[in-house]
Amino acid sequence: MSTANLSCDVLIVGGGVNGAGIARDLAGRGLSVVLVEQDDLASHTSSSSTKLIHGGLRYLEHREFALVRKALAEREVLLRIAPHIMWPMRFVMPHEPSMRPFWMIRAGLFLYDHLARRELLAGSETIDLRRHPAGLPMKPFLRRAFVYSDGWVDDARLVVLNAIDARDRGAQILTRCRCVQARREGGLWSAELRSTVDQGAWSVQARLLVNAAGPWAAEFLQQQAGVKGGRTLRLVKGSHIVIPRLFEHDDAYLLQAPDRRVIFVIPYEEHFTLVGTTDVEVPALTTPVKIDANEIQYLCDQVNRYFERQILPAHVVWSYAGVRPLLEDEASDASSVTRDYQLELDTNGPVLLSVWGGKITTYRKLAEEAARLIAGQLGVERPDWTEAQALPGGDLSPWLTPSDRPDRDIDQFLAQLVAEFPALPPALLRRWVRAYGGLVRAFLTPDRPLGEELAPGVFEGELRYLRASEWALTLEDVLWRRSKLGLHLSPPQTQRLSQWWEAEDQRSGPAS
Prior knowledge:
It is a single chain. The protein is α+β, with helices and mostly antiparallel strands. It has three domains: 3-45 and 156-232 and 339-377, 3-Layer(bba) Sandwich (FAD/NAD(P)-binding domain), CATH 3.50.50; 83-153 and 234-334, D-Amino Acid Oxidase, Chain A, domain 2 (2-Layer Sandwich); 406-508, no CATH class. The protein is built from twelve helices and 20 strands. The strands form three sheets. Strands 3, 4, 5, 6, 11, 12, 13, 14, 15 and 16 form a ten-stranded mixed sheet that branches. The longest helix is centred in the C-terminal third of the chain and has 18 residues, at 491-508. It is globular and about 70 Å long.
């Protein structure tokens, strides 16, 4: 077992979207950062979302106007800085007469359109489902619907891109590494880290500690950091199912359930439909987090209330679940608990910053506010910078002249690649552009062979890039977080990739 000593300004515990976002912001302000994640990046809550960048239309019903305004403003920021992994999406909300009245939804959508400046996303409208393509798969009793805009995001890649940018700006990112203890000693935080792969150990001295452990935040404070108190979290499991494609167009649906929850039905990975989510309070964390039979049936039932084609639990081809660490409030049911966040400073000795709550859409704003607090505590004066700085792969200026529509720039970049590499299928190039943006040039160049095609659309060059540059340590990291290729490959194809991966481990050592 090897031991190494590290020192830094800030040690961050947690490699989800909040931890990675804070690491990126701080590194860009010139601070030395070490981020430690006990599993893979985005391996828990941050890869288990509904994959939406949204203001949270239903939060208006709970009068969370400040949260909605903040999230609506962030939609536009994120769509500009990461157009390869985020893009606009239209949502169809059928009007079910027995649910919320028409005037209430219309008023809510008016607020949704106008609470924050909107340049990239179209406003809301009403449609006649009997004449609109969105009405074709729906039951005939549904006649009117509302249509509004939000955004889609590849959540796990969002975390990885933040970590890449943090690393490129000097941060050290340690995955599969657990913070087993952190103590205040001599005006610093002294932490012991332990690899979960080879039991390698690190001793870290940090001026400030950030607790961004998500659902484990309260547990980390008490058990690893030895700090009493802190906020109370409500742990709420959200589960999703994936079924064969339910409709042909590219718009998504928002369905109202009789329990006043809402369910999203979203085009997913070309050939599938994503349905979610549930809200089930859990008393304690268990891993792995799994959907249960009642949740699957609930999601099927909600889809079947609205769509002509009926789905059964047997139709589910994949499911996933994650635990959201929500701020404790007075809400009586899990779906009403606030999705806002709180940053808590503990200055009883070397500073501790704990992150409570939050949602994907506001992660950058959370990170910016956290970085300001941290910089102030450490006596560093550096301006905010992430609002206008593209995430890795999002800046396409080396290859084209950017316009005021980043989504169209991505399409133009794809067209260039299709012309440059006519031997490669356009669908494959589109997948790469949507995952990597400009980073695709790290393994796709005219003078560098891609290597063997190990499975349809899966080349050695891409896998070696992921191993070397994106902390992909196992094949699961690739198939279910860096991509969703696991949905598209047969068992023999997956087995072929597994054999190649094991051979690479033996040849060059495990991916770093």
